[in-house]
Amino acid sequence: MATTDSRSLASTVKKLVLVGAGGVGKTSIATRLIMKRFIDPEMTVGLDVESWTAVDTEHGVSMRIVSFDLGGQPQFRFFQSDMVAGAHLALVVFDITRYESFLELGEWLEMTSEIPASRRILVANKVDLRPMVMVDEAKSFAHQHNMPFVLVSAKEGIGFDDLEREIWAALLPQAQGTS
Ligand SMILES: Nc1nc2c(ncn2[C@@H]2O[C@H](COP(=O)(O)OP(=O)(O)OP(=O)(O)O)[C@@H](O)[C@H]2O)c(=O)[nH]1
Ligand SMILES: [Mg+2]
């Protein structure tokens, strides 16, 4: 059995933060990434922390991801900047059926500004419903901020191959120790 010393184990642990307005689907996205299914969630009170192992069979690499899923309601904002510290990757989520959640993105970009743009993925959730944000507008926002962009439905499981691909593209150089 292969053994791993504590240093190499530490280097494969990655911190992922999920940010975005209340109710956009952050917890549902985390659940879909971890459990590959949709479980109707409760509102996140402040913060939910989960961890799981992601495996990239193509490159023979695995990493332990610890997700910090931040409650989007404004009353939790006062301590959340501290929760973002040291994150390797952010999913910046909005609800494609709710334009206000798109307008709030600037606030979440500010909170995650320490993370390089290529490791902040813009995620449009709820694509199973009728969109109120034009895809082109969201794409151009992502382009303007140099962010990868994916469209998903946590409920229906749409777009998760793309999301996982973007997560690996952002973290693979680190997981392989080349960055
Ligand atoms: N139709 C549809 N509904 C979704 C989807 N994802 C989440 N929802 C619903 O949206 C609501 C909010 O989902 P959550 O995952 O709790 O959202 P959140 O961003 O974690 O919310 P906070 O914890 O309050 O910040 C719930 O009623 C979910 O069932 C989706 O892809 N499609
Ligand atoms: Mg939540």
Entry keywords:
single chain; 179 residues; alpha/beta; Rossmann fold; six-stranded mixed sheet; 33% helix; disordered N terminus; binds guanosine-5'-triphosphate; binds magnesium ion
What does this structure look like?
The structure is a single chain. By secondary structure, the chain is α/β, with parallel strands linked by helices. It has a single domain (10-175), classed as Rossmann fold (3-Layer(aba) Sandwich). 33% of the residues lie in helices and 24% in strands. The protein has helices spanning 6-11, 26-35, 80-84, 99-103, 105-111, 135-144, 160-175; strands at 13-19, 47-56, 61-70, 89-95, 120-125, 149-151. It has a six-stranded mixed beta sheet with strand order 2-3-1-4-5-6, with helices on both faces. The longest helix has 16 residues, at 160-175. It is globular, with a radius of gyration of 16 Å. 33% of the residues are buried. Mean pLDDT is 91; it is low at 1-10. Bound molecules: guanosine-5'-triphosphate (GTP) and magnesium ion. The site of magnesium ion has 6 residues, from α2.
Task: Note the topology.
Elements: H1 6-11, E1 13-19, H2 26-35, E2 47-56, E3 61-70, H3 80-84, E4 89-95, H4 99-103, H5 105-111, E5 120-125, H6 135-144, E6 149-151, H7 160-175
Parallel strand pairs: 1-3, 1-4, 4-5, 5-6
Antiparallel strand pairs: 2-3
Principal-axes geometry comes out as globular
CATH topology: Rossmann fold
Alpha plus pi helix count: 7
What is the CATH homologous superfamily assignment? P-loop containing nucleotide triphosphate hydrolases
CATH level-1 class: Alpha Beta
Number of β-strand runs: 6
Bound molecules: guanosine-5'-triphosphate, magnesium ion
Order of helices and strands: HEHEEHEHHEHEH
Quaternary class: single chain
How many separate domains make up the residues?
A: 1
The largest sheet has its strands arranged as 2-3-1-4-5-6
How much strand?
15-25%
Radius of gyration: 16 Å
Q: Which residues form runs of ≥5 with pLDDT under 50?
A: 1-10
Tell me the helix content.
25-40%
CATH architecture tag: 3-Layer(aba) Sandwich
